[in-house]
Design goal:
88% helix, mainly alpha, 34 residues, 0% strand, 1 helix
Length: 34
Amino acid sequence: KKTERALRALEKQKKKKKVEIFDYSALHLLYDPQ
């Protein structure tokens, strides 16, 4: 059960990081359109 919880926490962290990266690139596109 402990490992399951750890894996779930890792998944959540990965998703959070993806969202952060997405927000960052979206901001870049907004401020720096080509």
